[in-house]
Design a protein that fits this description.
single chain, alpha+beta, endonuclease, transmembrane, endonuclease activity
């Protein structure tokens, strides 16, 4: 009996430590995992993953240099640029599976690049105070319940509301009348205000019909120039890439109008069919400050409402300080309404 016991103990010492049931212990698993991460193999494995990680990082770093001449590749990439970060955990999982130290080190490049670009949006920058609240909503031309949509946006408490894609403005005018005494509709866009509106009129954004307006809101703190715009839609086509030429031309025209604005305090509300990262909107975005970027909580994606992937509905200001910015609950539209509070 003692001899048999000694032989059994010797056999256990030759292999992985096991419990009485024969299953490997946690310690044995950890020892085996550590042994797999030793030796020169960890540097040779995962070369393809390392290359993919470096390319992903470079794409984030040089996105502004991607050409737009072929299918507007640069603008397309910048529209969904934040989503490139999803590839980092995927590559991380594959690198761990392959036990590749080379791939893990290479992953530092896209991880740091993404944090540098969007890390600031992960925190809540909203503050308290402010004296002027605005909201904007693309209500969708085929909205089945305009009255409910209008009431939902008005419930935000905004002093000024902009609506885009109005197919029948009268249905919104009736629903908004109880809250907003002043309003102006130009073409398919409109502005509703608790304060008097003056100098309301269309803005030519080179579309052939009216999809932008400008009005002066006479606030208690002084006049504010309000622009409402709905830039042309963009499409992703297999044979043509990111078709955004008409939108880009309209952005140029809108930027010129804002550049010549005599009122010092300006707010732009609307569906620009592009994100703040899209260099083709620079004629507009270079002059104004994004309320979401300055005082929002998170990315503030607004489209599509069923699964928001991009913020194409914008609130931008000049001569005022954003205090907070947020998205409003979904309405029957395919966009989410967005709102912001600023200090004049």
């Amino acid at each position: 009996m003692p001899q048999a016991h000694m032989e059994e103990t010797g056999l256990e010492g030759a292999g992985p430590a096991r419990t009485d049931s024969g299953a490997p212990t946690l310690r044995s698993r950890l020892d085996r995992w550590r042994s797999q991460w030793q030796g020169p193999g960890i540097w040779r494995r995962g070369a393809v993953l390392a290359v993919l990680a470096v390319l992903l990082g470079l794409l984030m770093l040089i996105h502004a240099d991607l050409p737009n001449k072929v299918g507007n590749l640069g603008s397309l990439t910048e529209t969904f640029l934040p989503w490139l970060g999803l590839f980092v955990p995927v590559l991380l999982g594959l690198a761990l599976l392959r036990r590749s130290a080379t791939a893990l080190i290479a992953l530092l490049l896209p991880a740091v690049a993404w944090v540098n670009l969007f890390g600031g949006l992960l925190t809540d920058k909203s503050g308290k105070g402010g004296n002027f609240t605005v909201a904007t909503h693309n209500v969708n031309a085929e909205n089945p319940d305009p009255a409910r949509t209008a009431r939902a946006v008005a419930a935000s408490g905004a002093d000024v509301v902009a609506l885009e894609e109005l197919s029948d403005a009268s249905r919104y005018e009736k629903a908004m009348a109880a809250t907003y005494k002043y309003h102006s509709v130009q073409g398919t866009v409109g502005v509703w205000s608790k304060y008097p509106l003056t100098d309301a009129g269309p803005v030519d954004i080179k579309m052939g019909w009216t999809r932008a307006l400008r009005a002066t809101v006479q606030t208690p703190q002084g006049p504010v120039a309000v622009y409402v715009a709905h830039l042309p839609s963009v499409r992703v086509k297999f044979n043509a890439g990111f078709t955004a030429g008409q939108r880009d031309n309209s952005a140029q025209a809108l930027g010129q109008a804002i550049a010549h604005e005599p009122v010092k305090k300006v707010v732009l509300l609307g569906d620009l069919n592009g994100t703040m990262n899209d260099r083709s909107l620079a004629p507009v975005t270079s002059q104004l400050r994004s309320a979401q970027g300055a005082a929002g909580d998170g990315f503030g994606f607004s489209w599509p409402a069923s699964f928001p992937m991009a913020r194409i509905d914008q609130i931008m200001v000049r001569g005022m300080d954003p205090v907070s910015a947020w998205t409003l609950p979904a309405t029957p539209s395919d966009h989410l309404p967005v709102a912001a509070r600023v200090k004049i």
